[in-house]
Write a structure and sequence with these properties.
Layout lengths: L2 H9 L9 H10 L2 E4 L4 E3 L7 E7 L2 E7 L2 E8 L4 E2 L1 H6 L6 E4 L3 E7 H10 L2 H32 L1
Antiparallel strand pairs: 1-8, 2-7, 3-6, 3-8, 4-5, 4-7
Length: 154
């Protein structure tokens, strides 16, 4: 993938949509491109997280440890970002992310992300929107689970 293709891919990531093209070029230049093969983990739940991943191509599953093993809670594809919660809030990874197909991603360090947020304050709102959508989905999943448990108990 050329630098121009990376910049196009970055501009399609919702939290980067309002970032100037020159900054996206710089981000593409300083970011490390990594390749994950099917079954490889991008990150593991509970690990320290100082890097987010922007999926350029491929597919991944987001898995959360539950009492009975890992449960798939989401899927990721091109233009998705993952790992930003650990980067933003300096908390352990909230999930394990595993490639289900050959996946190319750009890494985004804590320093790079914070620099972008300082230079483009509107990016903070875009991040809040992404996190709010995830929270809404999680809340719906919990409500559905609670309803199933209530039915099973009856």
């Amino acid at each position: 993938m050329s630098m121009e293709e990376e910049v196009r891919a970055l501009s399609a990531v919702p939290i980067l949509a309002n970032v100037d093209v020159s900054k996206l070029k710089l981000l593409a230049f300083i970011s490390e491109r990594v390749v994950f093969h099917p079954g490889e983990s991008l990150c593991r739940q509970g690990d320290e997280g100082d890097t987010a991943f922007i999926i350029l191509k491929g597919a991944c599953e987001v898995l959360v440890d539950s009492g009975g093993g890992q449960k798939k809670v989401a899927g990721l594809t091109r233009n998705d970002i993952v790992g930003e919660i650990a980067v933003l809030f300096e908390v352990p990874r909230t999930a394990t992310v595993v490639a289900t197909a050959e996946t190319e991603a750009l890494t985004l360090s804590r320093d790079q992300l914070f620099t972008l947020m300082r230079e483009f304050p509107e990016m903070s709102f875009d991040i809040m929107r992404v996190l709010a959508r995830r929270l809404e989905r999680t809340t719906q999943d919990l409500a559905q689970l609670r309803s199933q448990l209530a039915q099973d108990a009856a």
